[in-house]
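Dear Dr. K.,

Following up on our conversation at the group meeting, I've run the structure prediction for Cell invasion protein SipD from Salmonella enterica I. I'm pasting the input sequence below exactly as I used it, so you can double-check it against your construct before we proceed with anything downstream. Let me know if the numbering doesn't match what you have in your notebook.
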Amino acid sequence: MLNIQNYSASPHPGIVAERPQTPSASEHVETAVVPSTTEHRGTDIISLSQAATKIQQAQQTLQSTPPISEENNDERTLARQQLTSSLNALAKSGVSLSAEQNENLRSAFSAPTSALFSASPMAQPRTTISDAEIWDMVSQNISAIGDSYLGVYENVVAVYTDFYQAFSDILSKMGGWLLPGKDGNTVKLDVTSLKNDLNSLVNKYNQINSNTVLFPAQSGSGVKVATEAEARQWLSELNLPNSCLKSYGSGYVVTVDLTPLQKMVQDIDGFRRAGEKTQNSKWITPNIKPGSRVLKRRKKI
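The predicted structure tokens came back this morning:
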């Protein structure tokens, strides 16, 4: 972080301004109006201070974890835009970096950029980069993080929220599908209805469209795709199995993990149409509940 205290009121940081000598009454003094370098430096410090304030505001906004909504998304977008605007102002100002700050930032921008939030490949490292160019690079990379990284997570949460809601709707029907047997010691399950609803949900999210793709984030018409390397990196980031990486068109996408649902469908025949209550309870515990817990964890990504 830049240390504002490093900037002094002297036109040249690090050099103490000498106190002007008071002329005697007999001396003839000619006064010329010249632009104040100190005033210019003060303006630059104000710009730097404003940018620092925007950085703090953006950190608070982007680190908050309220439920995803259009209002919250707009708030994060506004915070990013305000921050990048302040950095763009710094790029056009006279604020300079220390030699150490310049070297550290130049090294950071020369390093390979993560595919998780790379806006575009970096050019070949340069030995000399102006302070204005560095401010501009900081602004561009913050925008890239907002659009390419946080935007993906917002999309992941939105897709999994809809998916888990559909699964919860199926679970809410379980009470109506379990009926007592004639002797009171057995229960009957409408296996067909349960299996059909689970299969319907699996088939829905097996389709690749804007409502089922986790990465890349979808917008507009058609399905956006990414390179295999980008998709695999997000697959690892989201801790998803390889079955969630799918080839589509000219690229790849990452989709919802359907493994828990598919396991339920495979094991559902183990729940007999009629049997002892304790036996049926033992089947529900290892087959329905673990899948539910997995889906809940996915929802909290």
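Two things stood out to me. Confidence is low (pLDDT under 50) at residues 1-41, 113-124, 272-279. Strands lie at 178-180, 186-189, 213-215, 245-248, 251-255, 274-276.

Best regards,
J.T.
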